[in-house]
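Per reviewer request, we include the raw input and output of the structure prediction for the construct analysed in the revised manuscript.
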Amino acid sequence: MAPLLQVEDLHVSVEGKEILKGLTLTVRAGEVHALMGPNGSGKSTLSFCLMGHPKYQVTAGRMLSQGQELGGLSPDARAKRGVFLAFQYPIAIPGVTIANFLRASLRGVRGQDVPVREFRQTMKTQLKTLGIPDAFMNRYVNDGFSGGEKKRMEILQMAVLNPALAVLDETDSGLDIDALKTVAAGINALRSPQRGILLITHYQRLLTYVQPDAVHVLVDGRIVRSGGPELALELESKGYEGFKPAIAPAQA
C-alpha cells in the first residue's frame, strides 16, 4: 500500500525566500509522526504547502498522498482526497453554528449532500467519543472560544471529516495542562490503523500524552534527525542548538 504521505526532496519558497531546503518524509497508515523544530524552521510552511496555500511555491521535489501527486491540486481537491489540516490559529466565524459548519464541511469533502439523519448520527457518535457536550453544536464557530475550545473544535472537525491523513499544526500551542490533556485524549481517540497523523509541535509535552511512532527534528528547512519517542526527550534536554551541527555538511 502506498504511504498516506510521501514528501520527496521538497524545496519551498515564500516571496522568493527558500524555507524548505530538501525535506523528505514518509507517513504510513496507522502511524503518528511528530515533527519538531524551532521558530522559522519551516514546520508551518510544510503544513500550508501540503494543503495547497498559494503563497507557498514548490520549486523542487514532490508531495504524494496514497501514491497520487498533490502538487497542482486546489485545497478543496486535496481535502476530498483525504488530507486535513488543523490550524495553529483557528479563525472565528460569528453567526455560523458549529452544526451548520460541520455539515457544510462534510458536504464539501464528499461532493454531495449529507442526509440530516446520517449527519445527526455521525455527530452523536463523535461527540460521545470526544466527550464534548451536545450544546457545543449550537455555538458559533470559535466565537468567544478559549484556546482549548478552539483546538477541541479542530479535533471534532477532524473526527467528522474522517481524513486519511491529518496534519495538526501546533495543536498544543497556548494550551494549559488541562486543555492539553483534553486535546491529546481527542487525538488518541482518533488514532486508527487506516489514518496517518503528522503532529507539528515545538515541545515534548504533547508527546507525553500522544505517543508517536516516529519523531523528526526540523532545522533550517531540513530534517536533521529522525528517531523514536526518545528523540523528543533528547531534544528537550539538549534544545535545538544541540542539533544544528548535524546540518553543517549540507551547508558546505
